[in-house]
Amino acid sequence: MPERQVTEVEGRRLVLSHLDKVLWPATGWTKGQALYYYAQVAPHLLPHVRRRPATLLRFPSGVGEEGFFAKNPPPGLPDWVRTMVVDSHEGPKDRVTVDDLPTLMALANGYALELHVPQWNADTGPADHDRLVIDLDPGPGADVMLCCAVALLVRERLAEDGLTAHVKTSGSKGLHLYAALRPSGASAVVGYARTLAERLAADHPRHVVSRMAKALRRGKVFVDWSQNTTAKTTAAPYTLRATATPGVSTPITWAEVEQCTAPGDLAFTPEDVLARTAEHGDLLAPLLGEAAELPDSD
Known about the structure:
27% of the residues lie in helices and 28% in strands. The chain has helices at 31-49, 101-109, 144-160, 186-203, 254-259, 270-280; strands at 4-9, 12-17, 22-24, 29-30, 55-58, 68-70, 83-88, 91-96, 112-117, 128-138, 166-169, 175-185, 208-209, 221-224, 234-235, 240-241, 247-248, 251-252. Helix 1 (31-49) packs across helix 2 (101-109) and helix 1 (31-49) packs across helix 6. The longest helix is centred in the N-terminal third of the chain and has 19 residues, at 31-49. It starts with a strand and ends in an 18-residue tail after the last helix. Residues 30-283 form the DNA ligase D polymerase domain. It holds the Pfam family LigD_Prim-Pol. This is Non-homologous end-joining DNA ligase.
């Protein structure tokens, strides 16, 4: 395969390079395969990341070598890639918004293997959030089956408050639960998520912890409410994950959560995900629809 290939994506010229480069040594999965996956899954991925400032996890030397998070636009991006200005502790900074397929492909070509986005977008601004996210992270000795049991508890609590929970795998060990919100103040969303986590930990102390300290997490699921803070980002739906073998943060059904009996039940390869979207479409599509009012956290 040529070292460089010039192509056109939706009217944008792209120079793709090193397509044969192995990025996942454990499986021999290449940069070309990563680009193909993103091109195929883009219709389902893009609606969940569009107009949200992206944080990129880049692995120029492949998984297993040192990677790094990048908030600033990577060098060499085409000038047509859209950005937005975001306030940071260092002052206003440009951030990439992954609004279209050419941008997605340009970023993946630059070894941005993972996409992470916040729970707010350019329309709401950072002061207001349009999503609630609950990150279920298993501690040592816990697994995704325990995450599933806790996810059902979270779903029940959210439903009691008029919120509809949607679920996906993290692409690693845990689960992410989302609820669509009418734009709500960031501090109120954080307060609600924290209260929910603390109440679950109080009611189910054998299985749930709401504090981040690693010493508290053995055999339990950490209900990470802090992912709702304005500065935090969460792995986007359908993003690849830089795990030893290519993983994907995959939308799943509640039936799959209820029926999970082994970690492998909720581990999906990129090929699995493309087959799932071909059969079911975007299982997270309802998250893009009607939103609910954030309840009080009292």
